């Protein structure tokens, strides 16, 4: 089954050319199916690139997905055309006013790791988003900074600055192979990492109920389940395209920013060679498992989401 997207959304044509099943809103409305309502709160500067990455992953399951794009109410994007934002994104305040409920919500990362949470201009509203998920979202997926921010909001867990950027593709171990989110996973997984901060395993372990599902001896905890808040946090980037780390590396080199060649990414660590994508299959597994778990547990009546 396909993911439902507006035909004028750039991701529609991109994913259709890749062979991902996409469906127009008009065609979806004629099907007698209750699609899963999945929202994406996109905090990344390049909205089109990020929305396409996540649409690709959640659109590859056998279920019909109705994707909704959300932005922070007052924050204005400087890297995405205003016309795109006006056409496809709804401010969070409008979502609240409408009383919308969602089977799933993805909260992306943001390139603001260096800032204390309280210094982020939309921090107060984001905290309202986190609280709103407890009554209006069945399952929430916080990605990178988005996951760190959820950990801080609900449990006061801090993020810690790294002396050097964790940058590249790192081996991770599956710690809870019986988790429904890790069905089909290999014991050892390669995952792209790109961050200047970290969460510490000892601090996560000190919170009853938090379970680390995937971790790396080099870059620490990666995927954490918070069952009490019906959420997952992932501090790394399964959603990345093959060239995402390359684009970040080339940008920093061009700007004279000290940066190491991303580890275990280019063949023979040679930036002149095209990088190889060695995480795509597990990316689809993880997000497909998340969608399946939502489907198995969410109320059929959307109005009942968050009321149990």
- Tell me, what is the CATH class? Alpha Beta
Contiguous low-pLDDT stretches (5 residues minimum) are 28-32
Helix content: 25-40%
Number of helices: 10
Question: Roughly what is the average pLDDT, rounded to an integer?
Answer: 92
Shape: globular
Q: Give the beta-strand count.
A: 12
How large a portion of the residues is in β-strands, by DSSP E?
25-35%
CA radius of gyration:
19 Å
**Domains, number:** 1
Q: Describe the main β-sheet briefly.
A: 12 strands, mixed
Structural class by secondary-structure content? alpha/beta
Could you explain the architecture of this structure?
It contains ten helices and twelve strands. It is of the alpha/beta class and 308 residues long. The chain has one domain (3-159, 198-241, 280-304): Rossmann fold. Strands 1, 2, 3, 4, 5, 6, 7, 8, 9, 10, 11 and 12 form a twelve-stranded mixed sheet that branches. Strand 10 (210-216) and strand 11 form a beta hairpin. Helix 1 (10-18) packs across helix 3. It starts with a strand and ends in an 11-residue tail after the last helix.
């Amino acid at each position: 089954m396909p993911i439902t997207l507006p035909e004028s959304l750039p991701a529609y044509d991109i994913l259709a050319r890749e062979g991902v099943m996409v469906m127009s809103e008009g065609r979806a409305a004629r099907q007698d199916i209750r699609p899963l309502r999945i929202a994406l709160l996109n905090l990344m500067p390049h909205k089109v690139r990020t929305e396409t990455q996540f649409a690709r992953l959640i659109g590859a399951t056998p279920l019909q997905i109705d994707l909704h794009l959300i932005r922070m109410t007052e924050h204005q994007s400087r890297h995405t055309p205003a016309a795109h934002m006006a056409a496809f994104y709804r401010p969070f305040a409008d979502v609240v006013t409408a009383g919308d409920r969602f089977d799933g919500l993805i909260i992306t990362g943001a390139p603001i790791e260096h800032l204390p949470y309280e210094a982020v201009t939309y921090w107060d509203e984001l905290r309202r988003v986190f609280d709103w998920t407890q009554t209006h979202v069945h399952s929430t997926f916080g990605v990178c900074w988005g996951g760190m921010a959820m950990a801080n909001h609900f449990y006061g867990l801090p993020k810690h600055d790294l002396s050097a950027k964790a940058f590249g593709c790192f081996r991770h171990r599956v710690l809870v192979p019986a988790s429904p989110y890790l069905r089909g996973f290999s014991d050892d997984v390669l995952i792209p990492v790109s961050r200047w901060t970290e969460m510490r395993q000892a601090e996560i372990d000190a919170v009853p109920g938090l379970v680390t599902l995937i971790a790396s001896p080099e870059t620490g905890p990666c995927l954490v389940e918070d069952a009490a808040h019906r959420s997952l946090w992932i501090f790394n980037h399964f959603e990345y395209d093959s060239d995402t780390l390359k684009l970040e590396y080339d940008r920093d080199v061009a700007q004279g920013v000290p940066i190491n060649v991303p580890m275990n990414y280019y063949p023979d660590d040679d930036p002149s060679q095209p990088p190889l994508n060695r995480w795509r299959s597990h990316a689809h597994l993880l997000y497909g498992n998340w969608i399946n778990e939502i489907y198995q547990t969410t109320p059929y009546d959307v109005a009942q989401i968050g009321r149990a």
